[in-house]
Amino acid sequence: MIFRPYDDYDRGCAAYVFGCGTLGKGAVVDARADDIDAYIEFADAKGLRLTHVIDTHVHADHRSGGPELARRVGAQYCIHEAADVTYPFTALHDGERIELGNTHLKVLHTPGHSPESVCMLVTDLKRGADPWFVLTGDTLFVGAVGRPDLPGRAHENAAQLYASLHEKLLTLPDDVEVYPGHFSGSVCGAGLSGKPMTTVGFEKRWNPMLTLERDAFVEQLADVPPKPADMERVLAFNRGHETATMP
Q1: Predicted pLDDT of residue 116
Q2: Each residue of 190-212: pLDDT tens digit?
Q3: CA–CA distance from 240 to each of 50, 81, 90, 116, 237 (Å)?
Q4: What are the tens digits of pLDDT across the range 118-148?
Q5: Domain 2-236 has CATH 3.40.50.150
Q6: How far apart, in whole angstroms, are the C-alpha atoms of residue 81 and residue 28?
Q7: Distances in Å between the alpha carbon of 73 and those of 21, 70, 120, 164, 176?
């Protein structure tokens, strides 16, 4: 498998380019608008044809490059069916599988941070039939979890997030690697580590939020950092309601 994280340490954001080197089919998850050329150049250098561009959710802290990247490379732009966007997109559904040659993706719908949030469970058949890693977007971070308050209804969303974590992610094997959408420097969660990856087993052992009972988890998530700067404009851009260039 070809796998390349793109980590923005200034803003604590991560995007991922990966796929099957044998058949030359690949995907980009959580593309940032500023880095579209870098994804294309890397894919071209590796002989990787990008067939899917996936957003794990509608981002509130940075401009998504997903729709534009998909347009430029002729890929499908994919986001969960619940997403409030005006762009044409391929709807993702819970349990759906996407095949990129020997690289297989499974969609896990994990609402809580936002209604449309998904995680992508990735298997490399050349390595084996068991899942290798999961891209968790803003659902699970290293040492923290996603904030539930950005779309409103924070307590209701926190309860959904608890269920998503315990029913979808923490049931995965302990050795599955976790690559989140953010790390320290982001305001999309509180207490994020500066380490950009982890494992399911490590988070079960050390993530303080995952040891809480449901009611305590919901109350604890009420303590969140300030909302991202310029959040409403960023959301408008990412939903397709604003087309003007943002700084």
Answers
A1: 96
A2: 667 778 899 999 999 999 999 99
A3: 22, 16, 15, 16, 5
A4: 999 999 999 999 999 999 999 999 999 998 8
A5: no
A6: 18
A7: 17, 5, 21, 33, 30
